[in-house]
Amino acid sequence: MGINQFDLIIFDCDGVLVDSEPIIYRIFADTLTEFGFIMTYEEVVQQFVGQSLTICLKIIQESYGKPIPANFVERCREKQVIALQQELQPVYGISEVLKQLTLPKCVASNSTHRHIQLVLKLTGLLDIFDGKLYSSHDVPRPKPFPDVYLYAAEQMNTKPENCVVIEDSPTGIEAAYAAGMTVFGYSQHSDGAALAAAGAKIVFNDMRQLFQLLS
């Protein structure tokens, strides 16, 4: 499987480029608890990895049978931004890999444009993508639907079957697989078997391997 087979490499953002997920889920659990929706970090990870915020909030409101207060999202974002500014690191090995890759590349994420730009800027990766950042907020439906991946391919003038996607959640892998793309599952913080079951062609757990896997 050679690199010549692909015309475009699409990266998910959180958990693939930046190690933001442990920080984001910790703050999400803390803020939920602060607002009276008691959830542990482990429960949040188990239920919400890879899901869009809208879906997470909908699930929580349904399971508690009460609405989430209007100021919850803003409060959660404020706390997340502070924690990300203090703690965020790029995924180990990703900076080197991005420098080695000559293929056209872009980002496709369930997060907002504001979040994608913030985390890539904090980790020094923003310039590498030269504004080629696509969010599920640009399309009708978030992952696990294929919309954001199809949109990214269209914006980059590439056929879906010529794209390779790097994902770290079953939700994201389902989305890329449904888009007709080849998916590599990064399993550093995920269950490799679940990634393979969702449609990942290759599962790997060290980002430094990616260049070899693509060549």
Word description of this protein:
A six-stranded parallel sheet has the order 3-2-1-4-5-6, with helices on both faces. The relative contact order is 0.18. The longest helix has 16 residues, at 72-87. The mean pLDDT is 95. Strand 4, helix 8 (170-178) and strand 5 form a beta-alpha-beta unit. By secondary structure, the protein is an alpha/beta fold. 45% of the residues lie in helices and 12% in strands.
Largest sheet: 6 strands, parallel
Q: Which radius of gyration do the C-alpha atoms yield?
A: 17 Å
* Strand numbers in spatial order across the main sheet: 3-2-1-4-5-6
**What's the number of helices?**
10
Low-confidence spans: none
Mean pLDDT over the residues: 95
- What is the general shape? globular
Question: H/E order of the elements?
Answer: EHHHHHEHEHEHEHEH
Query: What is the structural class?
Result: alpha/beta
Distance between the termini: 8 Å
In helices, the fraction of residues equals 40-55%
β-strand amount: 5-15%
**Count of distinct strands:** 6
Offer a quick outline of the entry.
The protein is 45% helix and 12% strand.
Write the layout of secondary structure elements.
Elements: E1 8-11, H1 21-34, H2 41-48, H3 53-64, H4 72-87, H5 94-100, E2 105-109, H6 113-122, E3 133-135, H7 147-155, E4 163-167, H8 170-178, E5 182-186, H9 192-198, E6 202-204, H10 210-214
Parallel strand pairs: 1-2, 1-4, 2-3, 4-5, 5-6
Helix pairs in contact: 1-2, 1-4, 8-9
